[in-house]
Amino acid sequence: MTSNVPVLIAGAGPSGLTLAVELARRGVACRVVDKAPRLFPGSRGKGLQPRTLEVFEDLGVLDAVLAGGAPFPPFRLYSGQEVVWERRLEEMLGTEFPSGSDVPYPRPWLIPQWRTDEILRDRLTELGGRVEFGTELTGFTQDAEGVVATLSREGRTERVRAEYLVGTDGGRSFVRKQLGVGFAGETYETERTLIGDVRAEGLEGVRCHMFTRGGDITDRFSLWNLPGSEHYQFVAAVAEGEEPELSLATVRKLLEERSGRDDIRLSGLNWISLYRINVRMAERFRIGRVFLAGDAAHVHSSASGQGLNTSIQDAYNLGWKLAAVLGGAPDAVLDTYSDERIPVAAEVLDVSTLMHRRNFRATTAPPGSAPAIHQLDITYRDGPLAVDDRAPGGRIRAGDRAPDAPVRTRAGKPVRLFEVLRGPQWTLLACGADPGVDFGPEVAVHTVAEHGDLVDAEGALRRAYEVADGDLVLIRPDGYLGLVTDRAARVTEYLNRLTARR
Ligand SMILES: Cc1cc2nc3c(=O)[nH]c(=O)nc-3n(C[C@H](O)[C@H](O)[C@H](O)COP(=O)(O)OP(=O)(O)OC[C@H]3O[C@@H](n4cnc5c(N)ncnc54)[C@H](O)[C@@H]3O)c2cc1C
Q1: CA atoms within 13 A on the CB side of 108
Q2: Is there an atom of ligand 1 within 6 Å of 11 CB?
Q3: What is the three-class DSSP state of 239?
């Protein structure tokens, strides 16, 4: 029997779950299948970047994420029992985090990935969706109208006809392989990391504890507190040629060897993996009616914590576009997913490789000497959706992330612009006066003026957006500037390209 669904999502990691939440809140039905019996239990990607926190605010999961995590802790280097130094993340990496009213969450947030996954799964359930665990995508074909997929569950197979299939099935992606899409890049055969979650006694404080025998940071054994859990994430590079047994005994031995200490007691290993670093990217992210997102589309070193975050941003970029096209927008909107995300993935591969090579050795590097990792500076300026009618130059252009700003309602109540932007709609900020045009149901129009529905009393919005009276700023559903213009007809023209017009 064949069942029908608009979108089939293969893989319930962070990218598949984010996409499912994004579609569900737009009322787009989808099926999410995962071959595993449950969510992945390991802490893996444990650092959420500032931009991801903004996305999570929009998706309605930020409160749970803040409740389930903690600010990113300092790093402490030990030489045997002695504390050599303690440093903040930005000192470790030589990177900087922004501040100001346009950035509500300026710093990374520590939360185990299993908790992030649970929160996204719970949000999906709240929105009426669910994950079908123990259900593997084992084959698919596509034609001009859709995709026919085969799902296997407990020895039974089912055929599903979907308008679109999204492969969020991780680095070894079945979908990518089935499509024959190249995954160009390299595998660092000799560089492997033992990583996992373990209980630890004998440690004080919330930090990343880096143990060494003689202070050599490159020969460390790290233990990270995991908020909301008795477990710590351990990370240790494994020497070339060694094939460690994946057991608690191995982890204990490594800690003792690296630290020269026997006062830290490890127990309760509940996840362990020997992680080989791959730096690879899919050659295409869209093949007809099939898309790749998250690790299925790009993998890289975990140095600088970009993997999970980039996966979530992929899904956030794709979600509104899929919903738009399913609602009648031109198919070309979906091409912009690859146009926008491939350059971002390429950049992330470069940044994470650079940070991997530095391996915390550049701890004396001055702030700002390393690339930013917060992902707030990701821009689609050069992409097909960025239209800026202002004179060239300026700090902020169409394609950039829409900044936050403190404003007031007409009644004088203070609100953040991000509260206004929250939701699946496009937002038009009309500075100075209401343009008096009906742009359709997908667009929420706000007049930013002394007697408008938004009052920019402190001028923060005008400064953040570099706009003046008469300017119109069209903000995309995923919080990027689509169009900046001073002509209402340009807004209509722009939206005609991207939304279903009546
Ligand atoms: C050992 C390890 C350590 C990591 N450490 C970090 C870190 O410190 N920082 C960081 O930022 N990132 C880290 N990452 C990367 C981060 O975990 C990933 O970037 C993130 O999980 C990607 O999310 P995803 O949803 O794309 O894929 P995944 O989380 O891999 O999810 C893919 C899902 O697809 C399912 N699946 C696979 N094939 C099929 C199929 N045929 N049918 C149905 N379902 C299928 C799998 O069961 C899985 O649940 C680490 C990854 C690993 C493996």
Answers
A1: 26
A2: yes
A3: coil
For ligand 1, what atom is nearest to the CA of residue 138? 41
User: Is residue 258 in some structural domain?
Assistant: no
> ∠70-73-75 over CA atoms, to 5°?
160
Does residue 229 contact residue 96 with C-beta atoms inside 8 Å? Answer: no
Atom number in ligand 1 closest to CA 195? 1
Q: Is 167 in the pocket of ligand 1 (CB under 6 A)?
A: no
Chain segment 288-338, per-residue pLDDT in tens: 999 999 999 999 877 666 789 999 999 999 999 999 999 999 999 999 999
Domain ranges, residue 489: 387-498
Going by CA atoms, what residue is nearest to atom 38 of ligand 1?
169
- Residue of 190 and 105 predicted with greater confidence: 105
Q: Is 113 in the pocket of ligand 1 (CB under 6 A)?
A: yes
Shared-domain flag, residues 10 and 53 = yes
The answer to whether residues 47 and 131 belong to one domain is yes
Residue 136 domain-assigned (yes or no): yes
Residue 14 Cβ inside 6 Å of ligand 1? The answer reads yes
pLDDT at position 347 is 86
pLDDT, tens digit (0-9, with 9 covering 90-100), for 251-272: 999 999 999 999 999 999 999 9
Task: Classify strands 136-142 and 147-153 as parallel, antiparallel or unpaired.
Answer: antiparallel
Do 410 and 327 lie in a common domain? no
Residue holding tokens 């391996």?
A: 359
Contact 275 CB / ligand 1 (< 6 Å): yes
Question: Does residue 151 lie in a domain region?
Answer: yes
Domain count, the chain: 2
Q: How far is the CA of 247 from the centre of ligand 1 (A)?
A: 21
For residue 168 and ligand 1, the question of a CB distance below 6 A is answered with yes
In this prediction, what percent of the chain has a pLDDT beyond 70? 95
